[in-house]
Amino acid sequence: MMSGIRGSNTSPELAVRKHLHAAGFRYRLHVPSLPGRPDIVLPRLKSVVLVHGCFWHRHEQCKYAYIPKSNVSFWAKKFEANVKRDKLVRNQLKKAGWRIHVIWECEVHERGLAQIVRNLKEK
Ligand SMILES: [Zn+2]
Known about the structure:
Blueprint: H1 3-6, H2 11-22, E1 28-29, E2 40-42, E3 47-52, H3 54-57, H4 72-95, E4 99-104, H5 110-121
Parallel strand pairs: 3-4
Antiparallel strand pairs: 1-2, 2-3
This protein binds zinc ion (ZN).
């Protein structure tokens, strides 16, 4: 349902993958057996990294999470569904014992990537 709009292998995701790989992390991608088919899964750390597009996933207070001027109710419904789904997926992952690291599209720069690495290393 979501794959058409969200897409995999987007460039922010690729940037995160490259960075994690260079930092020595090994991961699996889009693991279908986990809730929400998380983008990046680090089985040894029991962690998942979700690379969220600010627009689709509604990054709060973010300039990229604007609301289009036309078809307002269409977008409102769509965004509400996305946010609800993200929440559900996070809860399911948490219940299954996974640590969740979200990196927003607008945070995929040197400082944000360094922060994700720090978060992953911390036990
Ligand atoms: Zn953002």
